[in-house]
Amino acid sequence: MTKIVGTIKLNESRLAVDLNTLSNSKFSDAYSDFACGKWEGCVLRNRSGMQEEDIVITHSAPAIATPLGRSLPYLNELLETHFDVGAMRYARIIRISENACIIPHRDYLELNGKFVRLHLALDTNSRCAHTEEDKIYHMGLGEIWFLDASRPHSAACFSTTPRVHLMVDFEGSLDPSALVRNVEKPSARHETVDPRQEWTNNQLEGVLGLSEIISEANYREIVSILAKLHFFYKVDCREMYTWLKEICGRRGDLALIEKTNALERFFLSDRAANEVIVY
Asked: In 10 A of CB 265, how many CB atoms?
């Protein structure tokens, strides 16, 4: 289950220099089929040290810094000071821009193993959130979180300022709390009441009413709407697939029904290596 494992005090001036470097760097579009809106990443450490290697695979060697990773002295220092670099397999920067989210999904489906994934929030605000199944979290600045990416989850940014996280993957059999170094004990700040609204039958019927207008032309836009609802209402992130299947079923469009079944399979249950989905 997703949980906070430590906090660190960030050096704002040094961080600003590296964030400025990142703002002028090229981000990869790998995994862009997972996004509704602008979600992008860049690799700081990986298996080969080559910048072009932006697809995650299972491997057993400590991660090697890429050219971009070597150009970011403060972020390199954070990795070396606060994480177990011997067990580290990937380090990436993930940036989510205004009104963008990740479609609820499970990671590692296409791999022959899995990782332990930690997030360090570098630039965020109260309009950014992360979800796991029916829970919602805000990862605060300088907080390090374990994300159980094998469970259905999502992330979103609804502010004009992009959310920037350092995302680090480790060898998959380790205890998340044992992978951090020189961190302060987590506060209880995140143990707050769920701020989302209750989900009602009226809202459900409003969503299912999209069956009157759904088509091949607006399918992706409707997927985007459904993918964002659980950030505002107390529902499990997987419900978007239930709604989408009902919408397409009511419409009676066999092509859209097939597309929705493929979407749910790809994001939640079975995904081939290097498979990309178009919808």
From this structure: 14
Please give the angle made by the CA atoms of 124, 128 and 130, to the nearest 5 degrees: 115
* Cα(87)–Cα(89) distance, integer angstroms: 6
pTM of the predicted protein model: 0.95
Instruction: Please give the Cα distance from 255 to 216 (Å, whole number).
Output: 9
Please write the tens of the pLDDT for every residue from 182-224: 999 887 665 667 999 999 999 999 999 999 999 999 999 999 9
Place of tokens 């992706």: 220
Closest CA to 41 of 176, 159, 163, 171: 163
Helix residue ranges per DSSP H, 71-161 = 73-82
**Residue among 73, 49, 101 at smallest CA distance from 227:** 101
Q: 7: exposed, middle or buried (C-beta count within 10 Å: 0-12, 13-18, 19+)?
A: buried
> Residue 203 and residue 276: Cα distance in Å, rounded?
32
Residue 14's nearest CA partner among 81, 83, 64 is 81
Q: How far apart are CA 263 and CA 278, in angstroms?
A: 9
